[in-house]
Amino acid sequence: MRVILEAKVRKKPFLPIEAESIIPRNFLKGTDLAVYEGNKERKLVDLFRISVEGTAVTPEKIEVVLKGDTSRVKRIGEYMDAGKITISGDVGMHCGNFMSGGDIEILGNADAWLGREMRGGYILCHGNAGHYCASGYRGEKTGMQGGRVEVLGNAGDYCAEYLTGGEVHIHGSCGDMAGVEMKGGQFIIDGDATRPCGNMKDGTCMIFGTVRQMLPTFERIGTKKLPDRKVTVTVYKGDVANRGKGIMMVKGTGRSDE
Amino acid sequence: MLIKDVVCPFCGCLCDDLDVEVENGRIIRVDNACTLGSKTMVGDDRLKAPIRRDGKGWIETTYDAAIEEAAQILLDADRPLLYGWSRTHGEAQGIGVHLAELIGGVVDNTSTVCHGPSILAIQEVGHPGCTLGQVKNRADLIIYWGCNPIDAHPRHMSRYTTYATGFFVKDAHRDRKVIVVDTRRNESADVATEFVQVEPGGDYAVLSALRAIVRGRGDVVPPSVSGVSREQLVRVAEMCKNAKFGAIFFGLGLTMTAGKNKNVRNAIELTDELNRHTKFIISPMRGHGNVYGTNEVFTWITGYPYAVDFSRGIAFYNPGETTAIDILRRGECDACLVVASDPAAHFPKPCVEHLARIPVVQIDPHPNATTHICRLQIPGSVAGIDAAGTAYRMDGVPIRLKAIIETGVPNDTEILQRLYNRVREAKGE
Amino acid sequence: MTELLIRNACVFDPLNGIRGDVMDIAIRDGRIVESVQNNADVIDASGFLTLPGGIDSHSHVCGTKVNFGRYMSPEDMRAGRTARRGKMHVTSGYYVPTTYGNSYRYSTMGYTTVLEGAMAPLEARHTHEEFNATPLQDMLANTLFDGNWSIMEAVHAQDVKRAAAIVAWTLSSVRGFAIKLTNPGGTEAWGWGGDLTGIRDPVPNFNVTPAEIITTMIEANELLHLPHSVHLHCNNLGKPGNYATTLETFGLVPDLNKNRQTLYATHVQFHAYGGSTWRDICSKADEITKSVNAKPQIVMDMGQIMFGRTMTMTADGPMEFNLYCLHHNKWSNHDVELETGSGIIPVLYSKKSLVNCVMWAIGLELALLTKNPYQCLLATDNPNGAPFVKYPEIIGLLMSKRYRDEECATLHDGIDQRTSISSIDREMDWNEIAIITRAGQARALGIAAQGKGHLAPGAEADLAIYPIRCDDVDPATEYRKVVEGFQKTRFTIKRGRVVARDGDVIVDGANTTFWVNPTIPDEHNVANDPEFVKKFEEYYTVRMSNYPVQDVYLPRGRCIKTEADI
Lengths: 258, 429, 566
Description:
The complex is a heterotrimer of chains A (about 260), B (about 425) and C (about 575). Chain A is mainly beta and about 260 residues long. Chain A contains 1 helix and 19 strands. The longest helix of chain A is centred in the first third of the chain and has 4 residues, at about 45. The model of chain A has no long low-confidence stretch (mean pLDDT about 95). Chain B folds into 2 domains: about 45-115 and about 290-425, Rossmann fold (3-Layer(aba) Sandwich), CATH 3.40.50; about 115-285, Dimethylsulfoxide Reductase, domain 2. Chain B has helices at about 35-40, 65-75, 90-105, 115-125, 130-140, 150, 155-160, 170-175, 205-215, 230-240, 250-255, 260-275, 290-300, 325-330, 345, 350-355, 410-425, and strands spanning about 1-5, 20-25, 25-30, 50-55, 55-60, 80-85, 105-110, 130, 140-145, 175-180, 195, 225, 230, 245-250, 280-285, 310, 315, 335-340, 360-365, 375-380, 390, 400. Chain B has a 9-stranded mixed sheet with strand order 5-4-20-19-18-6-7-16-17, covered by helices on one side. A 5-stranded parallel sheet of chain B has the order 11-10-9-14-15. In chain B, strands 1-2-3 form a 3-stranded antiparallel sheet. In chain B, a hairpin with a 2-residue loop joins strand 12 and strand 13. Chain B is globular, with a radius of gyration of 23 Å. The model of chain B has no long low-confidence stretch (mean pLDDT about 95). The two termini of chain C are about 40 Å apart. The mean pLDDT of chain C is about 95. Chains in contact: A-B, A-C, B-C. Chains B and C meet through helix 3, helix 4, strand 8, helix 5 and strand 15 of B and helix 1, helix 2, helix 3, helix 4 and helix 11 of C. Strand 8 (about 130) of chain B pairs parallel with strand 16 of chain C, so a sheet runs across the interface.
């Protein structure tokens, strides 16, 4: 079953919409769902042109396709457990929060907190991701616990903050403090990163571009050849400031300032 | 008439030892205050009545009419923002939060442009702190990091730290050491035992290095960290460990530079580490007189110190999303109530531009930058001058601001209560 | 004049010897009366269990430390969020809820009076502000004196009258209710990062011991004729082997008051550990209760822990730092100049942890092994042992051996070697539950005379009507019904007004704050003592004139005046 939601033109296009109801499972019972525009409750149909093709009896068989301007639609795919969501353009904040299964594909850019506190499933973002991609919530000690987030473009600051499990792969570069507070999982950055892995406790981070402002509290423990990538990386352990046992692998020496 | 022990409402120090001379309902002299405080108390240029924009100019209006118009603006909005609060008393702040709750708005305070990142850091790792008297009576080492108290909190050093005589610190000059850490030499550095000059954006790395040294892993630290030599870092770490009671005070140099909340977190975790060796505390240098009060009041009502979004009925909090700066930069709100602050003077340009596009109501006695972009301004009395109420000092000590003159101007609590009642009535409650 | 008649109530009112009588209760203008007129409003209690309003004699709900617990815990605020509805404001939080969250939840559980366990005098204004935002309970504030410099000086000078005069000035200035000592002397040592290891250790720089502080304050308390006794959080909280300190402390306590205890020892579960390390920790509840059973001058509360996440918060700063070193979770500390300290740390009590299982058992053992229920009251040191919303489960556990056995079966195996919980058969009855949740508290706090905790004519009409039919429910087997019944009253009545019904609060609330004002002869009043004033102005960072809490903070305050024997 395919559910196509095309965002309507709104009188106040800048108002955020919160649409955590947009997950495949909810469309098993129809399309009479509530979403919120600012402080007003709206029907899904008030804000989207809805068309449904085919039928399904399990969420796994449902694909939700979003079209039009969805850059201000927040919380799509929150708590999603199965099925697929495809977003043709950009998506607002908190896409795929707490997701435990299924796939989300974003053809444009994703705003901040993509895949926050994710537990399982797969998110693929073709464009760039905002700040706090695959991160945790304020005050919470556990971030993303499982699943996979892949961003073909760049990610903003604090990417994979508090990463606890699962995998995050940024094909482009990360902003400031990628992997800060990491305590598990695997984090791959194909491009550059600034001050990565501060206060890291555990987990593995690999950076294949340039590291800017390498932190002074990572202990060099050797080098390693990665045959898949055909590169040799320098291996660091840290963050020593935090009694950390995390591993950071950096192409070359890692210190652009040396 | 001489009024003693008056509380200065200007900055987070809330000095409560001012002598104020009042004559014919006017303040004519202030003793013991710093220049910032004196200016606040004496130079007081105010609006005489509510004003509303009328075509090209302003016309005076009544409180009733102004409150009616403000209520309509808030009722018509789909995402109203209620911002400011740091220069008014706690009682008004409380009604402000309830007003936001009633209309499904976002309520935020000036922490968003000062110590919001400190709050985020505290939410990650906690806050080993104390009241300022602990520092005054015990501390033999003071660290000012990314702040310039001589400029921004002129009496901080004499009342609480560097020059203050305390029970266990009889000779402040001899018994106390001061370390100043900043990106450039400031006036406060001139009185320091040790000045640590960090390259801009280098605070996080320096803090990490200090943590490693304190826990005995100085071996990994390179010879120079963000412009600071390892020798100096080792020396500073030793001074800290050898202190009987150390106190770190930090300002916007940590909270508003790259890394923001992570800088503060790193400083807190350095403090935690030092507590395994000796007694150490850390404290933010809060700016506005009652900004800490906004955090306290917001917290007991909503559970969060700032940036609270009620648009879904429940309280939602996510700085970076629900903070006034971010909402305005993204152009998300469609009306704004500004109380006891001046966002047009302090916010980035895109934020002010959005404010200029939407209806803005300001409750503030002073003509200010925000006056130029607001539709309606309602003057209230000033907390600590002609309005009494509660304020919280930067260390959490609650102090009652006094009304030292009588002006007959309604206070913010009364204005907001009327506004609240009017909105409630219009909603049929 | 407003009148209310509650018909057909199954009443337990231990202070008046009423045990399950089905009767009518007449209320006029907020107080219990003999009878009302025929046109009074009527509530049919349908034979349901009806008790005086619940009283929590030790809970942390208002003030600097509690609010900081909220401030640092956005992750907890995500739990238990409710929107504005009817008369109810927004609430957030599970273990450190907002003030309205606390107030609504207590009220729907039938609680009408709560004592805040720890108020630093310097920050009292904050506590009172939050009391006003906790509108459905009458509030009282334990006032901290554990590290008070002028008290320690008076103790050192062996000047009980001086100590009493300082207490009197402070309590009346900050609108406090009782003397609280938290790790006496230890909080001052923590000002330098240290702690004390026992009640005979001298406090650095002050040359007094906790034992001297405790005994002097007990005498001062009785000189002032305060309604409550000294309220003590013993030294060495949470350390294996600390039961010895607790027993030694109990040994210090004379029997000085014929109406109530002379010492209230709080959250004794945290102070009843045997062993020498976390590895060999075991219960010493038997020794503690043996002591208490022989000492009518002591009342304690359980300090029960329940499994799950919660927040520890106490004036005991050094203890919290030790916890931080153990758990590495976020840690806050807030020392208060010349007075006391405080610390906050989140914890998870886990059934997989033998230490936590032993702690759980000790709390229950204390209640079940104490012969006189007036001597061991129900409390969790909210939220330290568990948020107070767990009280109904604790009631269930105390009333049902089967429930305890079923719980024990899910715990760490080591619990049988380390505690005697499985061998205790006692099951409490309704009357005993009424004692350990209200009558005992009213007597211990000395507020029965203020009309609290009982239902005799003249008493305040605070009542809780629970949807439990005592005759139809066998608590020993149907403990689930007991737990559910205590979670939500059918009606909670406060000063003669229905404030909550079936889990919803239906009024704005208008509580009262009780405080004490002991009258001291002028020559003993420290406010007239130039030396006291000089020291105050020199070492505090607020002026003495700005220290007292103004009347405006207690819009419905009720002052209890006493005449001091000085």
